[in-house]
Automatic annotation (TrEMBL):
<dbReference type="Pfam" id="PF13884">
    <property type="entry name" value="Peptidase_S74"/>
</dbReference>
<dbReference type="InterPro" id="IPR030392">
    <property type="entry name" value="S74_ICA"/>
</dbReference>
<feature type="domain" description="Peptidase S74">
    <location>
        <begin position="280"/>
        <end position="328"/>
    </location>
</feature>
<protein>
    <submittedName>
        <fullName>Tail fiber domain-containing protein</fullName>
    </submittedName>
</protein>
Length: 344
């Protein structure tokens, strides 16, 4: 019988104590957070896609489609929009661009034709040997130094004749030898001091076609119109996962408070004495059947509580009150019986 009393009491405790809240589903929480993030990102993209109108043209944004983004963790799929930015020049700006593009196209064609010439030109390396440099210097000397030397020789010959020194004489021959040595010294000085200049001129002459081609190619680049993007505010992302977990924690705290309250209630029941205590109110029982009497004359019943189908054996609180009212107590409007007192 004692085992029956204990079972019935614990069964009642389980019925009265609130059930703990179900924890949030991690995947559902993640889906809620991801969905919020995606929506916020799309809203921020729409805020940033500001159409612009300027005197030189316009910049417009339009949604041109969507693509599916699959989340492997939650198994959900999100529609992500795709956008197209369209730049349109003003009427005069477009006319200028068309003319500029035509000119650049012509320069590109010219550069293309000149590049064929460079195939053979660059196949021949620049000759900077002594023979080549001296030949270049002698060529320069013949053009610039030799006229001055010829003028000086003519002046010397006239001076010799005026002094009575005739061609064929020893004095005339000696003077001519000195003049020849001076001319040789002048050419030697040119060769010694002009090598650097000759090398630079040779390299410049070799680089001129390359520089011309580079200039043509650089002029063929198409410039794009510039627009200033508006500085728009962004929408902060809502922490849905944090909100869900905070709500669960609040529910869990409430449940713990209710569970502690229920525990305190039944702790008070057990504190009434060392005897077993059971709910014995008829209103809490079903399938009540008399099966005999206890030693003190109280009727013995078998029954089930409303919240359980497990059979119990005990007394009815109203019958106990008629014989031993001190063995009956009331909790939340229902009668409980101290079986130690009732069956003494």
């Amino acid at each position: 019988m004692h085992a029956g009393f204990k079972f019935g009491l614990f069964d009642r405790v389980c019925c009265c104590a609130p059930d703990p809240p179900d924890p949030p589903d991690p995947k559902e929480t993640s889906a809620a957070q991801t969905g919020t993030n995606v929506s916020t990102a799309i809203a921020n993209a729409n805020l940033g896609n500001v159409n612009q109108v300027t005197p030189d043209g316009t910049l417009t944004y339009s949604q041109t489609g969507t693509y599916k983004q699959y989340d492997p963790y939650t198994g959900k799929t999100y529609d992500i929009p795709t956008y197209t930015a369209t730049q349109t020049l003003s009427q005069s700006g477009q006319a200028v661009k068309d003319q500029s593009d035509e000119a650049k196209l012509n320069l590109s064609k010219l550069a293309n034709s000149q590049s064929a010439f460079l195939n053979d030109f660059l196949a021949k390396p620049v000759d900077l040997s002594n023979d080549a440099t001296e030949a270049r210097l002698m060529d320069l000397g013949m053009k610039r130094l030799q006229p001055a030397l010829d003028a000086r020789r003519a002046s010397q010959e006239a001076d010799l004749i005026n002094r009575g020194i005739r061609p064929g004489s020893d004095a005339y021959a000696q003077a001519q030898n000195l003049e020849n040595q001076g001319e040789n010294d002048a050419y030697n000085s040119l060769l010694l001091s002009g090598r650097g200049q000759a090398v630079q001129e040779a390299l410049a002459q070799n680089s001129a076609p390359i520089n011309n081609l580079t200039a043509l190619l650089s002029g063929s680049q198409v410039s794009q119109p510039n627009f200033v993007n508006a500085n728009m505010p962004t929408i902060p992302t809502t922490d849905n996962a944090g909100i869900i977990n905070t709500n669960y924690q609040q529910k869990l705290n409430n449940w713990q408070a209710e569970a502690n309250s229920t525990s305190d209630l039944f702790g008070g029941l057990f504190g009434l004495g060392a005897n077993l205590i059971k709910y014995s109110d008829r209103r809490l029982k079903k399938n009540i059947r008399a099966i005999g009497t206890f030693a003190n004359g109280l009727t013995k019943y078998v029954f089930e509580y409303l919240w359980s189908d497990a059979p119990q054996i005990g007394v009815m609180a109203d019958e106990v009150r008629a014989h031993k009212p001190y063995a009956v107590k009331s909790i939340n409007g229902f009668d409980i019986v101290d079986y130690g007192e009732a069956l003494a």
